[in-house]
Amino acid sequence: MIKKILIIFLLIITIQFSTAISIDMKQVYQPGETLIAEISGNILEPISKEDVEFKRRNVQVPFEYDIKKLDRKYYLYAILTQLENNYTLIIKDIVTTVNGVVQRIEFQQNFSTAGELVSYSINPGFVIAREDFELTITLNKDFEETISVDFPEEHEVLLEPGENTLRFSIEFAEAGFRRINIGIYSVPLLIVKEPEKQIIILPEFRFFPDIIESTLLIDQEGTYPFRIINFREQDLTNIIFEYDTNLFEIFPEPIELLSSNEVAEFNLTLKVKNQPISETILVRSGNLTIELPINIQYTENIEEVETPYLEQNFSESQAYYCSELNGKFCSAEEVCSLDVTSALDGNNCCIGTCSTPKEKTSYAWVGYLLGAIVLIILIIIIARYYKTKRQGNPLKK
Length: 397
Hints:
- The protein has helices at 2-20, 364-392; strands spanning 21-23, 28-29, 34-41, 52-56, 59-60, 64-70, 73-79, 85-98, 101-113, 120-123, 127-129, 133-139, 145-149, 155-159, 162-168, 176-182, 185-191, 205-208, 212-217, 223-230, 236-242, 248-251, 255-258, 262-270, 277-285, 288-299, 328-329, 335-336, 341-343, 346-350, 354-355.
- It is mainly beta and 397 residues long.
- A hairpin with a 2-residue loop joins β29 (341-343) and β30.
């Protein structure tokens, strides 16, 4: 009776484990075929390549393989040997749920290779593409074969004996998961495209920083440098500050002229302590107005003290475009007369002058020319000498 109960218990456990994880593998593959399989189940922790083994009679087999998560499921591929045999796929330490209970299990699946050598294999058996990619198809025949491919559009590919490289472009393909059909294979493909970078157009008349946020310790004084930037083509005149003079003091103030492409620097000092502040400073010039929000908080915890834009590793130039720094980017053939600096739109902003290095002028050709002239003159002199000698001393009959 106890033996029967134990057998039933083991059967229940086996059923639970077999239903927790499943894989759409075939029972029999052709020798040399590429095994491509989808793993299904509630997988709670990542599966790595090191968790996968292929064994033949408890001896590990060195297949070329990989396992990755594409979209929401795991996919496995392996390039099988060209020999007929029986194998076991083992995936260790899978964390999943069995009847709602989290368990760590080992998954096993038997399969075999039998029959004729497969016509061709494909490597890799799945792709995560962030750019154009390549697949290698190895044709195991001594004559050409044509296969159909449906990505990025329907077309045919002529395979030659041995390795063939297929190149694919994702330029016009949408991001996301799909399967692409390449001959006898259905290859999982995940296209990942970075979102297009937004072009930021900064106001030509603005503050830097665009907001002053700070957390101070109780009783700590606060002074904050800031700038007013005029990147307009016109000068700004009669610039007026508007703010609560009971809370702040700004120095220097006012300024009568801020020329085009000029930056004016100021310091804002708090007049009060221990009072949270949420105010706005206005700067007006004619019909132009810009705002600088001020948010000040206080704390007793020194770890919470911060003023982000004044952090030690903050580079002010990184908040400006190169053109705002009165700089430019030199071409590949040019060099900058000063050390380049980092800017918002690149790390090689030249504040100095871009120039093309002058090639050293070689005058070697002058020496060669003079040498050739001297040689020609010597030849002429020697020829005339021998000619005169023969004329002055005729041969005797």
